[in-house]
Amino acid sequence: MKNALEKFLKIDRRLIFLALTVLLFAPIVKPLGLPNKNLGKDVVNIYNYIENMPERSFVMLSLDYDPATRPELHPQAVAVVKHALRRNLRVGIFTLNAGATGMIEDIAARIPKDIAPDKVYGRDYVIMPFQPHPVAVMTQMGINIYEIYDKDRNGNPTRDMEVMKGIKSVKDMGLGICITGTAMLDYYVAYLADKNKFPMAGGVTAVSQPGYGPYLQTGQLKGLIGGMKGAADYESLINDVEKGTSGIDALSLAHVLVIVLILTSNIIMLVLKYL
Amino acid sequence: MEFLANLWNSFAGLFTVTPGWMTFGGWVAAGLTICLFSFLYKDNPFFKVAEHLYLGVGMGWLFQVYLFQTWKPKVYAPLMEGQFSVLIPTLLGLSLVTQFFPRISWISRYGFTFIMGYGSGLVIPMEISTNFLRQIGGSISPFIGATGPWDLFNGALVAFGFICVLFYFFFSVEHKGAVKKASNIGIYFLMLYFGAAFGNTVMGRFSLLYGRFDDLYKYSDASYFYATHVVLGLLVAYFVLDKLVLSKKNGGQEPAH
């Protein structure tokens, strides 16, 4: 008995990888449809904020993530774009991360297809080009946005666009949301939101989510979408099932495996120590 | 620059996205993902190739983004329009490159001086305001704006934890008596934070893994000519063959990794 238990504690780690692979892969092949019943309060806050914005308000969406964090952050971005366009808000997509341009291409291609086919580029939404040196860009966005973004990503002048009507700086915008896997949201809070009294919200990876608690408590962030769970919550709120929701099955199963392994190993350790 | 842009456009034209290229892209994505995951079994040449490709492709992507989305519109285009003032930041930026040439590396100090001065002036006031004063205010405000007993308890708990953690990091007083007790309670608050952060990290990593598996499933489709199955099969065959060859060479003993 003791030998068997000791053997279990020295199990080949590759078997755990295999078990994890099976548990994560199985729901992709055959979705289980496990419910997502606990919606995060901070996600609901962003949803409510957007719901209460007057029509044609401007939402600045800064997508600052690259392929490495795509599974967590891309569903968040898609859900927020869908919600804002459905609410008939104007959306400006920005990026200060060179690796994000490919992800933005995907959203740009999807808006006329399935996200919001009735919306018109230049009237309802605009996509700005990548800009380096985030802090300098943010500082300028608080003064005169056209000093930096005088042209969109296709080289068209932005001043004349209907979507930019009445917008001179972020002070004329209704809300800013930064979705990022880096510290970009911290910069936005410090250099744009606090400085210009600009309402800011964020979407971040699950890893960095707990670190933003202080900003939420002080109201420096109006809300926060954290990881794939946050994306799933947002999809539930807008009644639109996408990658975030489908990932919940896999995450739930994988978490069960981790809990079972932690409990089993601890029980075995106790048994070996005291019995 | 115009010549480079034209050259790039002609080159990029060869890669206009067609169904054939999408399939090829699927094979590359599935192949590289599986090659990188193969490290979980053991180190192998396919993992090394994928690892180096990742670095190379990443650098290439960043280079072209900076060249065409920064240098062209922010330096080349204004210069062509006669705005020579952009030469000042451009030269300051270029001065940083002299770091690679020891004899003239002193020139880079001008660029760095500007970065240091500009950066400090921008960062220090903002940090004091955003991450210091506002956070102290945030620890007090729950008491002022409390709407019920639960809010008050929540605020008191946060403030209590905040003070205890500060005691843990306060080294100018010997940790004994009441200070030691407060410091020990601070450790529990820190452990709670680390536990929550680690739980979130696990969830985040699983999400990333799920994302790759989701793509692998997509590429296992007939429209991609079963890219995932084929690459996985080839890699398994390699490992089996490797094991057999190793068994013959070392009498069944694998070299230590």
Question: What does this molecule look like?
Answer:
The complex is a heterodimer of chains A (275) and B (257). With 275 residues, chain A is of the alpha/beta class. Chain A folds into 2 domains: 2-30 and 251-274; 41-241, Rossmann fold. Helices cover 50% and strands 12% of the residues of chain A. Chain A has helices at 2-9, 13-29, 41-51, 70-86, 101-115, 134-141, 184-196, 213-218, 227-237, 243-274; strands spanning 58-64, 90-95, 125-130, 175-180, 200-204, 224-226. In chain A, α5 links the parallel β2 and β3. In chain A, α1 (2-9) packs antiparallel against α10 and α2 (13-29) packs antiparallel against α10 (243-274). Chain A is elongated and about 80 Å long. Chain B has 257 residues and is mainly α. Chain B folds into 3 domains: 1-82 and 239-257, no CATH class; 86-145, no CATH class; 148-225, no CATH class. In chain B, α2 packs across α3 (45-80) and α4 (87-95) crosses α5. The longest helix of chain B has 42 residues, at 178-219. Classes of the chains: A alpha/beta (275), B mainly alpha (257). At the A-B interface, α2, α4, α7, α8 and α9 of A face α3, α5 and α7 of B.
